[in-house]
Amino acid sequence: MKKLSLLLLAASFLLLSTSAWCAKDLVIINGEHWLTSSLEQKRAYLFGVGNMLELEQAMMGKNYEALRNKSIVHVLLEGLSGISIADLVLQLDNYYAKFPQNKKKPVIEVLYIDMAKPNLKH
């Protein structure tokens, strides 16, 4: 896992250093995107979020414990711990089906507020 994290970190720096990447190309994935995505795309999104969380936690190093209550990383890692990717896909599908008025709500916000925060052990 450590090799994968280092590889992803190196790839991220390479991506960010290229002039082809631009903030205008960044798309915040919301329910509209989610509902029209294939299962493979949904899984890839969630794996990407998971990898970024692991990278952020690793980069915090010894500071992770001190920053854990001030970080989205802690909430997502702890609140979604033990939930499989398949279950996350199903829960997100169900959320957007139950609340179609929230199609513009970003998936990361649903993961954070509606799924991870309620599962935190205070």
Helix content: 55-70%
Helical run tally: 7
Gyration radius over CA:
15 Å
Number of E-type strands: 0
Protein model, in words:
The relative contact order is 0.15. The model has no long low-confidence stretch (mean pLDDT 83). The chain has one domain (22-119). It has helices at 2-17, 31-35, 39-60, 64-67, 72-79, 85-98, 107-116. It starts with a helix and ends in a 6-residue tail after the last helix. The protein is built from 7 helices and no strands. The chain has 122 residues and is mainly α.
Describe the secondary structure blueprint for this structure.
Elements lengths: L1 H16 L13 H5 L3 H22 L3 H4 L4 H8 L5 H14 L8 H10 L6
Helix pairs in contact: 1-3, 3-5, 3-6, 5-7
